[in-house]
Amino acid sequence: MLTAAYPSDLNDAEWAILCPLLTPSRQAGHPQVLELRRIVEAVFYLLRTGCQWRALPHEFPPWPAVYWHYARWRRAGAWDAINAALRERRRVAIGRTAQPTAAT
């Protein structure tokens, strides 16, 4: 991997955690052309900087493609699954149970 161009870019260990949680989009007759890692990094860049979709730097995939994947993952619940997986991973790392028990 190239060095991180932006603070929001993922390192290899971070990508290894997120990659299994995101399934590549499948369209009949259309192979996956854009690298999913760059699409995720573009979404994180947008979230971190607060820039507009159309102002996404040219180093990232085209903004309509990034938005399409983001919206698709949002509708499929992928972002909620990522949040839950990261929360559980963090809880286990600090010696707690994966799921909180106080609210149950």
UniProtKB/TrEMBL annotation:
InterPro entries assigned: IS402-like_dom
Stretches assigned to the Insertion element IS402-like domain: 10-82
The protein's name in its UniProt record: Transposase
